[in-house]
Amino acid sequence: MGKKKKTGIIAACILLAVILLMSILAPVLAPYDPNQIDMKTPLAMSSAKHLLGTDNIGRDVLSRVMYGGRQSILLALAATGLSMALGCLIGMAAGYFGGAADLLITSVSNVFQGLPGMTMMIAIAGLMGAGVKSMLLALVLTSWVGFSRLVRGEVMKLKQELFIEGLKGMGAGNFRILFMHIAPNLLSSITIIFATRIAGSIMSVAALSFLGLGLQPPTPDWSVMINDARSYYRTNPLLAVAPGVCIVCLSLSINIIADWLRDRFDVRRDSVNE
Hints:
Elements: H1 3-24, H2 26-29, H3 61-97, H4 99-114, H5 117-128, H6 132-141, H7 144-158, H8 162-169, H9 174-182, H10 187-210, H11 222-228, H12 238-265, H13 267-273
């Protein structure tokens, strides 16, 4: 690993740690209640009292930025975790059993993969109404295919291994083979794609909330803050810049770490390079 790349990874880890700690410790670190309204100081500029100023109804921007990552990060983790669970189960079934089950699952996944992800998310969230539940469902339904395809391919390779044949000869059932012997061999591949998808989920959560289909005001969320700032960003640019920088830094740091994990643990890439 080059010195510059190593420095970049360390910087990304530090940046991610700072954002996560800021979000987790927001109740302790935030100088004000994020929803505390003060109509005496609307759209105040940066000052000693309000380091990032206030929004159009006098809420402290710094406090809202500190709280802003909590729900987005949790929702991204939940959506990616559910997508991973669904995709892995479907992919394992398709890869291990093959035949008609594999054909059906592959056909369904091809349909989902052919649909524009963001357009489908907007359609699902729009039909079900704005809210966390509809946003989670939209994210899961548009994200499980990637996990399914990866797991299906890995399982198809693993089931040809001699130790699987030996387990079958010893009378081991399909459930035991799949979850006790095949699943542990998928951990590295799943970890890589999970880390990669987290950043995408964060951006999707931000996009849906910005469009008014996800988290709703007065929730102190970065994307909600950017949406609220559209009419006031010329008066106080920090209203949009501060949460926007946080979203970019969080996604960028996760992507850098995910790329490092891919380089570090992707056996297929190593074999190709050799």
